[in-house]
Specification:
Elements (H helix, E strand, L loop, with lengths): L4 E5 L3 E3 L21 E3 L5 H12 L3 E5 L7 H11 L4 E7 L9 H21 L12 E6 L12 E4 L3 H11 L9 E5 L2 E7 H4 L23 E4 L27 H15 L3 E4 L8 H11 L7 E6 L1 H6 L4 H7 L1 E9 L3 H6 L6 H18 L3 E8 L6 H14 L4 E6 L5 H5 L6 H5 L7 E2 L2 H4 L8 H11 L7 E2 L5 H12 L16 H4 L21 H18 L4
Parallel strand pairs: 1-4, 1-5, 5-6, 6-7, 7-9, 10-11, 11-12, 12-13, 13-14, 14-15
Antiparallel strand pairs: 2-3, 8-9, 16-17
Helix pairs in contact: 2-3, 6-7, 7-9, 16-17
């Protein structure tokens, strides 16, 4: 007999961004491209982590994956079958805010919010008083902004294991330590649980995920795994929840071994996204998990965030990374301008960084597998249009066949800033630094007709957003940054120059369209993600929904 029951809705709506660079490929016809957003085929790690934690506490928790693809009738049918007398909550778990710049994405977000509210009206604690159901509808995310559109009874922000335990005690009428704070966002009062401040769940040495038969995991899925919780660095632009840690926050090696082994033996899983803020913060950490991997009866493939300057400065990290199967790297390089790099706390000399990146690429490619996504920020102090474009051009020539991601500098304000669990140093101090000035559209000479039509909606969306500032400094302003972005993103890239970003592998591998090794290839060699891939993923998701509803 369980202590109580809960349901967690997990999954995400995917959006195309310039890191995948398919939107303007001439090698893919327009009628073969999906719309600006679609239900993703990847599982929600936060939902399954909380479910695993609560099951070990004695609760019966079921995760409903791919929930963006479920319609209201299907969810209602599921709830009528699953919700019972001891059901405490229905939760929605989110990673990123819904409703980006795409019109379809915004419409989808409104539909999701409406479905959630309609279900809450029928099954919720504070819904229709004639209803026999009295279930809380709650939400959880690292930042409240990801779930603010849902009408939740409680909002959980940050790593939530300790908070959700206290919440369940409260629901059962037991003595508890849950702290609920009333916050006001967009003029509405919300009941918020601020996990990082009031119920810190770090370090967490056994932060494993244990899937169940009713999750219907397929062998070609890319699952998520956490190797450590927290990062030793505190980069100026970073707003992850746990930064500046000094101690060993890595997971127990035996816990990681058992998770990888069980997923392989039960589901055939060999591919993972590592969710750590920085994977290579310590060489000892890499060696620790390389030793774990070498005990396994299979070779896993990992992708995740790598600090590029550390990779360049510490070639001794390359060998344990390879032993781990960590050959897919995301580098937040931000800039190849020395002065701009110093401003963001990445002070390695540009030439040393360039030489190190080339050497690492060549070393991994010699071993047999390598792929990188390299991210830049447009508009850092001391960066001009010329120096930024020089950096992009260098990357294209010297890191060929890799994925390049770029986005304008944004400074959060108003509710966007208020809803952050751990606002970055930059967001909190940019205007006080004396480097940035707040300016108007008129001052910058904003004319959206200057933006290529394919990018115009995106630029208008962010330039008019209430949650980000219109800024300038001595070398650039936000309008100039968006023009650089739009012109680069609207280019017709050569298929042989671009390929899948490392966090998009699931779009190609899950469903059997490509192998993990083929993720090294460009779009001249593999078919870009399109309607054929989307149809296969919808088939897989519909099969999952059917099995959840007992139809197949």
């Amino acid at each position: 007999m369980s202590l109580g029951h809960g349901i967690i809705l997990g999954g995400m709506q995917e959006r195309e961004d310039n890191g995948d660079r398919r939107m303007n490929l001439e090698s893919q016809k327009n009628d073969e491209k999906p719309v600006d957003s679609w239900p993703g085929i990847k599982r929600a790690p936060g939902a399954h982590r909380i479910a695993t934690h609560l099951r070990e506490e004695g609760y019966d928790i079921e995760v409903i994956d791919f929930w963006p693809a479920w319609n209201y009738e299907e969810l209602r049918e599921l709830f009528l079958d699953r919700i019972r007398e001891d059901t405490m909550f229905v939760a929605v778990s989110a990673i990123f805010p819904n409703g980006g710049a795409g019109k379809h994405d915004q419409e989808w977000a409104r539909q999701r919010y409406g479905i959630f509210s309609k279900l809450k009206e029928e099954f919720g604690q504070y819904g229709d008083p004639r209803s026999k159901y009295k279930v809380d509808f709650i939400g959880g995310a690292q930042n409240i902004s990801a779930i603010i559109g849902y009408q939740c009874d409680y909002y959980f922000a940050g790593y939530g294991e300790k908070a959700i335990t206290e919440y369940c005690k409260m629901k059962r009428g037991l003595e508890h330590d849950l702290i609920i704070r009333e916050r006001e966002y967009y003029g509405a009062k919300r009941q918020v649980v601020e996990c990082r401040h009031d119920h810190p769940a770090f370090p967490w040495t056994h932060a494993h995920i244990k899937y169940e038969d009713r999750d219907y995991i397929q062998p070609d899925e890319i699952l998520s795994i956490e190797l450590s919780r927290g990062c030793r660095f505190q980069c100026k632009f970073c707003s992850f929840s746990v930064l500046g840690v000094k101690d060993d926050y890595t997971r127990c090696d035996e816990s990681v071994y058992q998770e990888l082994l069980e997923n392989y033996e039960r589901w055939g899983t060999t591919m993972y996204t590592i969710t750590d803020e920085t994977i290579n913060d310590y060489t000892e950490k890499l060696e620790k998990f390389a030793n774990v991997v070498e005990r396994l009866p299979f070779k896993p493939h990992f992708q995740g965030f790598i600090r590029g300057d550390l990779l360049a400065a510490k070639p001794e990290q390359w060998e344990p990374m390879w032993r781990m199967g960590l050959w897919s790297h995301f580098y937040g390089i931000e800039t190849l301008n020395n002065d701009a790099g110093k401003y963001v706390g990445k002070g390695m000399k540009t030439e040393r960084l360039k030489d190190g990146l080339i050497a690492a690429r060549e070393w991994f490619q010699k071993q047999g597998l390598y792929k990188a996504t390299i991210a830049f920020i447009i508009g850092l102090p001391y960066e001009t249009e010329e120096t930024f474009l020089d950096g992009i051009e260098w990357m294209r020539k010297n890191m060929p066949r890799q994925s390049v991601l770029f986005s304008p500098l944004q400074i959060a304000q108003n509710e966007t800033l208020n809803m952050m669990t751990n606002p970055s140093i930059f967001d909190k101090t940019a205007l006080q630094s004396g480097i940035f000035r707040e300016v108007s559209h008129e001052h910058m000479g904003v004319d959206f007709n200057e933006i290529p039509e394919s990018m115009r909606n995106v630029v208008q969306f962010y330039m008019n957003a209430n949650g980000v500032r219109n800024w300038e400094h001595d070398h650039m302003n936000v309008w100039e940054a968006w023009k650089i972005f739009a012109n680069l993103a609207a280019e017709t890239p050569l298929p042989e120059e671009v390929g899948p970003g490392i966090f998009y592998y699931h779009r190609y591998v899950t469903g059997g369209m490509n192998t993990i090794e083929e993720m090294q290839n460009t779009f001249a060699e593999i078919e870009p993600y399109g309607l054929k891939h989307l149809a296969k993923h919808r088939e897989l998701i519909n099969n999952y929904i059917g099995r959840k509803l007992g139809r197949s």
